[in-house]
Amino acid sequence: xxxxxxxxxxxxxxxxxxxxxxxxxxxxxxxxxxxxxxxxxxxxxxxxxxxxxxxxxxxxxxxxxxxxxxxxxxxxxxxxxxxxxxxxxxxxxxxxxxxxxxxxxxxxxxxxxxxxxxxxxxxxxxxxxxxxxxxxxxxxxxxxxxxxxxxxxxxxxxxxxxxxxxxxxxxxxxxxxxxxxxxxxxxxxxxxxxxxxxxxxxxxxxxxxxxxxxxxxxxxxxxxxxxxxxxxxxxxxxxxxxxxxxxxxxxxxxxxxxxxxxxxxxxxxxxxxxxxxxxxxxxxxx
Length: 286
Hints:
Elements: H1 11-14, E1 22-28, E2 36-45, H2 46-61, H3 71-76, H4 86-102, E3 106-113, H5 114-122, H6 132-150, E4 157-162, H7 169-183, E5 198-200, H8 206-227, E6 244-249, H9 252-263, H10 277-285
Parallel strand pairs: 1-4, 3-6, 4-5
Antiparallel strand pairs: 1-2, 2-3
Helix pairs in contact: 2-4, 5-9, 6-7
């Protein structure tokens, strides 16, 4: 695997210098489809995003020029990648990943297998709870602020998500933000803004395009593992092997903890013990 996901602590956090302000750009990858649900993106100081945007845009403008980046289009040679050769596609991806590696970005992602999500959340009477986007959103935010909180960082994190026109995801997230603030541990409060996250169009936001690349790759890797398929080839090779990220793959135990946090009680599990039909028949005949 070409990106070294194990090196989680960025240099900025190993120093004693506090960050001025953090911005996190987050995107989903085919959230409405199984076998798992994925959010992924990048967080960095606000001052990092302007030079990163310039560098990313410069790669987009290189021949063959594309207006924006979408991981699915790159993989399927559709949209902006229609008519582009495989070798030129690969080079474009390698250069984009290089820009991520050359800037102090911290990756963040959450994946939730449908087999874990469905028994606990899919049939809940509350719309927001049975929406996998909302659950993944809160799992990702809690992972990130918990991490920075342990580092002693006290700066606010501004969350920017991709525009979600379906499933009322944006409305549910915005409505649930106040509840999230109320239930967040006290040590997290300094990192959370009072206003809900923003939603932008990824075609207009370089940060969201980079997030789309991250979310798409995380989904590709985890979907292959979930389905028992070979791991996909990293098109960019060893480029960006030093990229650092936080990763959360939700397990049954994590899902139950999230359920308790959101609903207020542990999930009720039902087990069944089937009687021996022959013994029952014998008892009835006596």
